[in-house]
């Protein structure tokens, strides 16, 4: 899930800062419908045995906030995508679900062909082939004739079809995933055993899109640290506007949520001719994988949850509580000591405290005197926060971040001196550097596009992200609550904590789903893969997910802070464990600790590669 910076801006899995707080989405009123059969059956099955007591948040972070009960507005009952009458048990619910799927959808034949040019880097696109799966728009009324398209991908192959299928998800929630087979391409352990399939979930990418219909000019926000009554009132107005627009624009929005998506995934499984599927989900994809496993435990093969959210907690806990802590820890414990160690190169400070002071001074100067740079336009305190937060996902970005902070410092110092020649030279360098560090639009770090960048792809991804997160689980309501939480989080975790106030879900007018709580019952072993200082999905949430999912094994990478690990950062210990599990089903007997690879030495970074391009897609 898929960091927050504050220009209405983002995985899941993929994808991240409390910035979930700012994203576009679309939504329309739906008539009251019965609670989903499969969901109710799942909850009924869960209630027949003792539930594990809720775990307490660790002392390193505030206790989880509890959203109040949601008021059901007239004509606006909870969404209910899967069924009608309550069956006796889960197996019967699954049988009924399959029986209710229209025959023409259940038996559809896939036509594989070229993928859209947005699916992957151009030089790798020919390695993929894509197909479209037709699914009911509303799984609660699968026979009403209204359908959506779900785009899927796989690697081209002339050889025999492997015996297993691995479904993948990059996170977000709502991140496009057609490129995902390329992440796992070349894993020797999977080459002969598994067909890797990418999916653009409903709402985004090459699938049927959702939209919010907002113009980017509507999205201007004050600096998140401006706590004046005027700034807070303006922020609340924008959040209400986003929530209102996103709940009244797109006819698809009520049907973009996790219940609908897990039903789509099970249809993909059936159309591919598999009785079971394996899963590799990153970030917000851990949430989706855990929900699929809870709805369809008999379909679960070998599931890997990489960089896990707390799969049993509401999204408010994930984005408003956990993420500010995670980004603060990564910035202060990893980046700042590293930059101080290399002060001779970057001139940001000889101690972590001095590096932090350099960041704060630069931020204050950019708030007082924003810069105008080629390719990116206005660069202010919000821009700096976004650059820093996005760079926390991968240690490979640390050197570029430190260099760019130094450039911005020099430019800011030169402005009053009118040194135009040198200023123009530095600005020409800084523009591309800032652009490359900023979050991609419509991602978990930046749900809403910046001004001047509103396009269909970014709008659809942002809309899918916010529609899922606001539709799925309950959120606390009202300006007073979010002002207070933003103040508290900002004082504790200033990098992104202040932007907690910018939360459209706090003004959402649609009741949440009643999703079953994943508990691991009736599931084979699962792997949860986690780094110790992950910024977007902090280790505290992964530990709670591990406790909730009773059959899981936790693979913790100590001394590591990158987000999205398997087949991505090149850790042999981790990759071998996951390879073995996916290829053979052999899970570790218990939890495992791997050693991290350490932070990079400046000047020794490899030239930007295709693998790095793919990783950037994965982490947003």
What does it look like?
38% of the residues lie in helices and 11% in strands. Helix 11 (352-368) runs antiparallel to helix 12. Residues 4-37, 48-88 and 441-453 have low confidence and may be disordered. The strands form two sheets. Strands 1-2-4-3-5-6-9-10-11 form a nine-stranded mixed beta sheet, with helices on both faces. The protein has a two-stranded antiparallel ribbon with strand order 7-8. It is globular. It has 620 residues and is an alpha/beta fold. It has 19 helices and eleven strands. Helix 17 links the parallel strand 9 and strand 10 (552-558). It has a domain at 327-437.
Task: Describe how the helices and strands are arranged.
Layout: H1 37-47, H2 90-100, H3 103-106, E1 128-136, E2 147-155, E3 164-169, H4 180-184, H5 188-191, E4 194-200, H6 229-246, H7 258-271, E5 277-282, H8 284-295, E6 300-306, H9 315-341, H10 343-346, H11 352-368, E7 371-373, E8 377-379, H12 381-391, H13 398-414, H14 420-437, H15 456-472, H16 479-492, E9 526-531, H17 539-548, E10 552-558, H18 572-584, E11 592-595, H19 610-619
Parallel strand pairs: 3-4, 3-5, 5-6, 6-9, 9-10, 10-11
Antiparallel strand pairs: 1-2, 2-4, 7-8
Helix pairs in contact: 1-2, 7-8, 9-11, 9-16, 11-12, 11-13, 13-14
Amino- and carboxy-terminal Cα gap: 10 Å
Main sheet attributes: strand count, strand direction, barrel closure: 9 strands, mixed
Strand content: 5-15%
* Total DSSP helices: 19
> Residue-averaged pLDDT, rounded?
84
How are strands sequenced across the largest beta sheet?
1-2-4-3-5-6-9-10-11
User: Which structural class do you get from the secondary structure elements?
Assistant: alpha/beta
Overall geometry comes to: globular
The beta-strand count equals 11
Give the helix level as a range of percent: 25-40%
> What low-confidence regions span 5 or more consecutive residues with pLDDT below 50?
4-37, 48-88, 441-453
Gyration radius (Cα, Å) is: 23 Å
Would you list the SSEs in sequence order as H and E?
HHHEEEHHEHHEHEHHHEEHHHHHEHEHEH
GO molecular function, one term: hydrolase activity
Family: Belongs to the peptidase S33 family.
InterPro entries: AB_hydrolase_1, AB_hydrolase_fold, Pept_S33_TAP-like_C, Serine_prot/Carboxylest_S33
Organism: Kineococcus xinjiangensis
